[in-house]
Amino acid sequence: MSASVLVLAGGLSAEREVSLRSGRGVVHALLEAGLHAEVADVGADVLEVVGRGHADVVWPVLHGAGGEDGTLAQVLELARVPFVGSSSAACRLAWDKSTAATVVARAGVPVPDGVTVPHSLVRDLGAAQLLPLVGASVGLPAVVKPVHGGSSMGVVVVERSEDLPHAMVSALGYDPECRVEAMVSGTEVAVTVVDDGTGPVAAPAVEIEPESGAYDYGSRYTAGATLFHCPARLDDEVTARLLEQAVGVHVALGLGHLSRSDWIVDAAGVPWFLEVNTAPGMTGTSLVPLALEADGGAGAVYSRLVAAAQRTSR
């Protein structure tokens, strides 16, 4: 008898609409693979929704706060509900871009230099004193982004020192902390790592070529706004190094069934780690389904992950 899966989507974060589209994408792939699946739009009623259902496995695809930050995973762990994803501890680690960068760098993976600036520090010391120190430490051009969150919300590229204050205000509008990171130029790629219980394996890397030049929110979720190349157009040796490092990131952070890490490969062929997602987008324009389709089909992989969640819950 096929497993039944309840996909949790929606939530209350700024990424709610993307999450709902991801939920529909996962359900579509599971149904095509022959599983019973339905999506539920959840918020604070998540335990009530899960309790009403009779699913064998829950698959949370809530993006942003409340979903990727480990909160939902911890609720499901406490309720002893089998689910596809990473543990709450791993989610919390990956959710904090600064902490994740530190862990990944210690594992020997190249990470751009960066400084984490909390809003409280700007308030207490004053921007006039603090920002010149930040700019001098990281250098320009730089990328300013919220420490927590996804979908490129609040991310700004800064090329002039006078633009740094506005960029930080933008990022801090999404999160109490922002990360100012040295910008690495090169080819933007994403790597999906899957672990169905037999160990983490990287899918083909996806190269990202946005028509606007920036892979922002619009480029991510507007059909036709970005060209994708899968597998990425990289040298074989560079590709092998990238995939190996993506698996290394997955292992170093203790991630579970699925992750998607984002990278820049510079002109010398060095992959630089940017961040990792424990509940990546699963929409029609998302990178994980694209990578998995190139590797045999998303539905088959999703089915294996559901089976893995069932096994680990026994």
From TrEMBL:
GO terms for molecular function: D-alanine-D-alanine ligase activity. InterPro entries: ATP-grasp, ATP_grasp_subdomain_1, D_ala_D_ala, Dala_Dala_lig_C, Dala_Dala_lig_N, PreATP-grasp_dom_sf. It comes from the Bacteria. Keywords: ATP-binding, Cell shape, Cell wall biogenesis/degradation, Cytoplasm, Ligase, Nucleotide-binding, Peptidoglycan synthesis. The lineage of its organism: Bacteria, Bacillati, Actinomycetota, Actinomycetes, Micrococcales. It catalyses: 2 D-alanine + ATP = D-alanyl-D-alanine + ADP + phosphate + H(+). This is D-alanine--D-alanine ligase. Its main location: cytoplasm. Belongs to the D-alanine--D-alanine ligase family. SUPFAM superfamilies: Glutathione synthetase ATP-binding domain-like, PreATP-grasp domain. Pfam families: Dala_Dala_lig_C, Dala_Dala_lig_N. It is found in: Cytoplasm. Cell wall formation. Residues 101-307 form the ATP-grasp domain. It comes from Aquipuribacter nitratireducens.
